[in-house]
Amino acid sequence: MLMKPGVIVDVAVDQGGCIETSQPTTHSDPLFIEKEVVHYCVANMPGAVGRISAFAFSNVILPYAIALADHGVKSAVERSPDLESAFNIYEGNVTNRPVAEAFD
Predict the structure, then answer these.
(1) Which CA distances in Å does 70 have to 28, 58, 64, 74, 92?
(2) Residue 74: enclosing H or E segment and its boundaries?
(3) Measuring CA to CA, how many Å separate 26 from each of 6, 19, 51?
(4) Residues 16 and 58 grouped into a single domain
(5) Are 17 and 8 in contact (CB under 8 A)?
(6) Mean pLDDT by 10-residue block, N- to C-terminus, for the chain (104 residues)?
(7) Of 33, 32, 31, 3, which is closest to residue 19 (Cα–Cα)?
(8) How does strand 37-40 pair with strand 6-9?
(9) Which domain holds residue 20?
(10) What is the count of structural domains for the chain?
């Protein structure tokens, strides 16, 4: 699929990016244009707003931490299936295929 002219922000550029045309940029030179698409691919975007990022991260992660503390891993995952994808290892077994492949 071809990208339409516009703007894209690649928040995962630190991990290789989500967009084929992405390449890391910096806060001092944050933009580049390719194929009529303005790219904003600043690595470590949260680092520019550390306090706000910490609050945002805490607000997202806290319910999961509380669920794990209140119910334990197995019950918390049963109650919240999206939590399951956060585990790379469970009871000594690698549960995430890319992690398993990375570590053979």
Answers:
(1) 45, 17, 10, 11, 22
(2) helix 50-79
(3) 20, 17, 20
(4) no
(5) no
(6) 86 88 93 94 88 93 95 92 85 86 84
(7) 3
(8) parallel
(9) 6-43
(10) 2
